[in-house]
Design brief:
Layout (H helix, E strand, L loop, with lengths): L17 H12 L10 H13 L5 E3 L6 E5 L2 H12 L13 H5 L17 E4 L12 H11 L3 E4 L10 E3 L5 E7 L1 H4 L7 E5 L7 H7 L5 H13 L4 H17 L9 E3 L6 E3 L6
Parallel strand pairs: 1-5, 3-4, 4-6
Antiparallel strand pairs: 2-7, 6-7, 8-9
Length: 276
C-alpha cells in the first residue's frame, strides 16, 4: 500500500487532503455574508475557543494570557518579534524554523548553557527539528523561569500535532501564537491568534488590532473553515494512517502528523504525498 518513493526530504509540507480544496471551492462559490460587519472582539472570542477545543493535545494555561490579538499567521507573530528585537536580539535554538537561517545566514544559535536574560528566547512548540517538544524543553523553561528570561512561543505546528501535554502558564512565557495554516493548509489565507500576558501599546500587532486593520476577508474565510471542521481535523482523521505508514515503511513516528524520522533520527521526512 505504501512505498518510500513518496517520502519527501528537504522540506515538510503540510497535509492537503481533498476536503480542503473542496472547502476552498465552496467558500468562493457560496453566497458569503458581508464580512465588513464582523466585529473583531467577537471573532477573537470564537477563534480563541476554536483553538482551545482541540482534543489531540492536552494544553492548559490559556487564561493567564488575557490579551488576545489577531495575527496574519504565525509568520506575522515571528516578524513582529524580529521587528522589535532584530534576529541578533533574540535567542534561537538550532533546528528551529529554517526561516531564521534564511534571513540571517550567519546566525549564532543559542544552547541551554548559553541562555541569558539579556535577550528574549523565541522558540517553536512543537519544535521542527524534533517533531514534537524540544528534547530539553523542561530544562529550558526551568532555567528561563529561574533566571527571568522572557520566552515567546511559535506554536504554528500545534494544530497539526498530537499527544503533546503543555502548560503555558509559566512565569517566563510572555506570549504564544497559533494559526490556521497548518490546520487547514490555509497558507493562502494566513490568520491566527496571539495570546499575551499584558497589552503592549507600542506593539505593531496591538496597533493593527486596535485600528481594526486586520483584513475582514481573512476573517471571513477563517470563519467559514471554523464552521466546517475542528481545528485538529488532520490528527483526528489521519493519526491511525500516520502510524500505519511509519510501521509499514519502518520509520520512526513523532508528534506531528505531516512528518516523521528515519529510524536513526538522522533524516526528517514529509508525508503529505500519502494523504489524499
Amino acid at each position: 500500500m505504501y512505498n518510500k518513493e513518496k517520502l519527501i526530504t528537504g522540506r515538510l509540507p503540510v497535509l492537503k487532503p481533498k476536503i480542503f480544496s473542496e472547502l476552498r471551492s465552496n467558500y468562493f462559490t457560496s453566497a458569503q455574508e458581508d464580512c465588513s460587519n464582523i466585529e473583531n472582539r467577537n471573532f477573537i472570542k470564537k477563534i480563541d475557543k476554536h483553538f482551545r477545543s482541540q482534543i489531540q493535545n492536552d494544553l492548559t494555561g490559556f487564561d493567564s494570557f488575557p490579551q488576545k490579538d489577531l495575527i496574519m499567521g504565525c509568520q506575522h507573530y515571528i516578524d513582529n518579534l524580529i521587528l522589535k528585537h532584530g534576529v541578533n536580539g533574540l535567542q534561537i535554538f538550532e533546528h528551529d524554523y529554517h526561516y531564521y537561517k534564511k534571513i540571517h545566514p550567519n546566525i549564532n544559535y543559542t544552547t541551554l548553557d548559553d541562555l541569558s536574560n539579556d535577550r528574549p528566547l523565541l522558540m517553536a512548540v512543537p519544535f521542527p527539528g524534533h517533531l514534537g517538544k524540544h528534547r530539553q524543553l523542561s530544562e529550558i523553561l526551568e532555567k528561563c523561569n529561574r533566571e527571568r528570561i522572557e520566552v515567546h512561543l511559535d506554536c504554528a505546528w500545534m494544530v497539526s500535532a498530537f499527544d503533546i501535554q503543555f502548560d503555558f502558564d509559566q512565569p517566563c512565557i510572555k506570549s504564544f501564537a497559533m494559526s490556521f495554516s497548518k490546520a487547514y493548509a490555509l497558507h493562502w489565507n494566513k490568520i491566527g491568534l496571539r495570546w499575551s500576558r499584558v497589552k503592549d501599546d507600542s506593539d505593531s500587532i496591538t496597533f493593527l488590532n486596535e485600528a481594526d486593520a486586520i483584513s475582514k476577508t481573512l476573517i471571513s474565510v477563517a470563519n467559514f473553515y471554523m464552521d466546517s471542521l475542528p481545528i485538529d481535523y488532520l490528527c483526528r482523521k489521519y493519526k491511525e494512517t500516520y502510524f500505519d505508514i511509519c510501521r509499514t515503511l519502518k520509520l520512526r513516528p513523532a508528534n506531528v502528523i505531516h512528518a516523521c524520522f528515519s529510524i536513526d533520527k538522522k533524516i526528517l521526512y514529509g508525508l503529505s504525498k500519502y494523504f489524499d
